Amino acid sequence: MSKTLGQDPSAGREVAPAAAGTAAARPGSPEAARIVVTGKGGVGKTTLTALLARLLARRGLRILAVDGDAQMNLGYALGVPLHEAEAIVPLNRNADYIEEKTGARPGAGWGLLLRLNPDAEDAVDRFAVRAPDGVQLLTMGTLSQAAAGCLCPENELLGAAMSAIALREGELILLDTQAGVEHFGRALARGFGQALIVSDPTFNGVGVALQTARLASQLGIPALHLVVNRIRSDADLMRARAYLRRSPEVRFTSLHALPYDDVVLEAEPSVEALLDGSRSPFAAAVQRLAAVLLPA
Ligand SMILES: Nc1ncnc2c1ncn2[C@@H]1O[C@H](COP(=O)(O)OP(=O)(O)OP(=O)(O)O)[C@@H](O)[C@H]1O
Ligand SMILES: [Mg+2]
Questions:
Q1: Is the pTM here over 0.70, yes or no?
Q2: What is the CATH architecture of 34-293?
Q3: Pairing of β 129-130 and β 136-139
Q4: Ligand nearest to the CA of 50
Q5: How far is CA 8 from CA 78, 88, 244, 249, 256, in A?
Q6: Res 290 pLDDT > 80
Q7: Would you list the DSSP string of 152-203?
Q8: Most CB within 10 Å of its CB: which of 4, 28, 57, 196?
Q9: Cβ neighbours of 31 (radius 10 Å)
Q10: Per residue in 157-215, pLDDT tens?
Q11: Which protein residue's CA is at the shortest distance from atom 26 of ligand 1?
């Protein structure tokens, strides 16, 4: 039974258990190991993605972290050394690779023969960067343009790379996306079995989360987890719940409240200092979230 948060005042402060008997409760399925992180701007998507990646890598899982945000800051959050992170060329600007796969260079103009649906299976092996704890980082560049559907070489390549990623097995994939819902379409969601929909306890944050949940549900993502981050007080939590109650038809698989935590800011740009868990209430709550995403 999944929880309708807006109607359930007893939903746990930290965690409401994952719904039983739904596709969400199929731990170990390949789809469940592909998790897309989405939500309004600045709510903590990248921080959460990086911390989950590092924590789970330390448990021995193979992790592929995918940066789908034009700002490309997942590398810094994962703890990739600054000079290495700065040198990363995202797939959508890797002109040689784009030409190799599609037969055309970005911006080459019309009249070129563009190879559609190229095979980009080798993108991870060739271009992923190794972050601490063995996390692999693939930097895609702006997925929103690809979602817009323009017929150009870089978007063809990004679409192909997303399709190839959605077929990977034997590793956990965490996809960090850029803010908003505009990019969140079928191409991006294909193959992903869980969505972490991140919000803060504001009207706008929860509004974007609800909109994303409706979209994700239409796209057929089976498990939708709502993460309300930067909670400072019970009043924050109550406010978020009140906003959710306005849309009782939106059902989430689980609810998580992550505390506001100065240690997160002190740790910037990397999540490194959060990893031992002892000093950071945020990290402790993310550990519990990880247990719901990937039950033992
Ligand atoms: N629980 C928290 N407590 C305090 N600060 C936090 C918390 N979570 C995130 N932050 C801080 O909030 C800011 C935004 O976080 P982050 O970059 O992870 O958000 P984002 O959703 O990825 O943003 P964008 O939409 O720009 O990609 C950062 O400065 C981060 O350190
Ligand atoms: Mg981000």
A1: yes
A2: 3-Layer(aba) Sandwich (3.40)
A3: antiparallel
A4: 1
A5: 35, 45, 10, 12, 14
A6: yes
A7: SHHHHHHHHHHHHHTT--SSEEEEEE-SSSTT-SHHHHTT--EEEEEE-SSH
A8: 196
A9: 18
A10: 998 999 999 889 899 999 999 988 877 777 777 889 999 999 999 999 999 999 999 99
A11: 42
Q: What is the pLDDT of residues 75-124, one digit of tens each?
A: 999 999 999 999 999 999 999 999 999 998 887 766 567 888 899 999 99
In the numeric block, the tokens 């050394």 are attached to 81
Ligand index nearest the alpha carbon of residue 74: 2
Structure tokens at 246: 């306005």
Predicted pLDDT at 106: 84
Tokens 């789809």 map to which residue? 31
Cβ 205 under 6 angstroms from ligand 1: no
- Ligand 1 pocket, 264 CB below 6 A? yes
Q: Is the CB of 99 under 6 A from ligand 1?
A: no
CA dist 119 and 11 (Å) reads 44
